[in-house]
Amino acid sequence: MTRFFRIARLLRSSVVLLALPSPVARGLELLTARSLPSDLVVRGGLDGVPAGEERFVTWADLRRLPVHELTLSAEFFPGEQRVTAVFLEDVIKALPVARGTDTILATCGDGYAAVYRFDFVDRCRPFVVLEINGLGPEKWPPPGLAFNPAPYVISVSAGVAPAVAELRDPGHKKPWGVTTLELAMFADKFQGALSGPWAALSLRAEQGRVLWVNSCASCHIGPGGAFGGTKSGQPFLVLQTLARCEPAFFKLYVRDPKSANPSAHMEGHPHYREEELEALSAFITAEPRK
User: Fold this and answer.
1) Would the CA dihedral through 147, 151, 157, 159 be positive or negative?
2) 56 by DSSP, 3-state: which?
3) Residue 81 neighbours by CB distance under 10 Å
4) Cα(34)–Cα(36) distance, rounded to whole angstroms?
5) N or C terminus of the chain: which is more exposed, having fewer CB within 10 Å?
């Protein structure tokens, strides 16, 4: 199943939140070597971990954090599903987060990515799915699901946090196949999108930067190597050239990629308004402040 159709179902989901008895939150043990395929990779701003080194967290250790049972509708397939999850904020609290860290980046096995600034985590309460209808990732995909979302899914729901209903692209905060969490400083990971020609943008270009970070960065590396997923193989310079020299084609491609290129793999964004496409183009072409 493509991410597009999964996102369409997610937008129709509802949730009932039930707390499950859990032990008191404790620190997660950071292993220096993988013990199981379901181990979650953690890296980045971790106190006591040398720069550049990865650590591993087991599913069992995550399951010992405070968990909640959510009854979701059409989250993974039609009908209701029971999902056992731990809030991302509790995962962060259980890690030795280095001073100054303000962002957590999730990356997936297929190169997809999602950006969660800590203020977003507080406001929208994303959660890490540990079980679907009582089955852990070693038994995924669960009956009724045509694709395997293992080892982890991160999701958000308006039933958990009302602010989710206000998100422009909630689907970009719902990655599946998550393998890695990276703790980081936003200003460092997105330096290329905040400096040089992108340091003094027009108002609409600044709005486009927000759209880029929260949506486009799921698949695209940004200007100057700013963080982004690697699912798309298109260099930023190609996008910039299209936005500058073929603006009508660029907008069509964003809205409906296959109508512009039948072999396109990108998901369409038909809900984007004209002013949003203009803002996105302004960011990509680094439209300067006047």
Assistant:
1) positive
2) strand
3) 20
4) 6
5) C
Residue 74 pLDDT: 87
Task: Flag the least confident range among 23-32, 103-112, 141-150, 165-174.
Answer: 23-32
Write out the two tokens for 264: 């396109």
The answer for residues whose C-beta is within 8 angstroms of residue 102's C-beta and 6 or more apart is 117, 118, 119, 184, 185, 186
This prediction has a pTM of 0.91
Band of pLDDT at residue 17, cut at 50, 70 and 90: low
CA distances from residue 50 to 44, 170, 235, 290 in whole angstroms, order as listed:
9, 34, 31, 44
List pLDDT tens digits, range 212-240: 999 999 999 999 999 999 999 889 999 99
In this structure, the number of other CB atoms found within 10 A of the CB of residue 11 comes to: 14
Model confidence over 111-167: pLDDT tens digits?
Answer: 999 999 999 999 999 999 999 999 999 999 999 899 999 999 999 999 999 999 999
Domain annotation for the chain: domains and CATH numbers: 3-185 (3.90.420), 190-284 (2.60.40.420)
Alpha carbons 207 and 283: distance in angstroms, whole number: 8
Tell me the one-letter amino acid at 26: R
CB 106 within 8 Å of CB 78 = no
Residues 6+ apart with CB under 8 A from 221: 227, 228, 229, 230, 235, 236
Backbone φ, ψ for residue 150 (5° rounding): -65, 155
CB atoms within 10 A of CB 51: 9
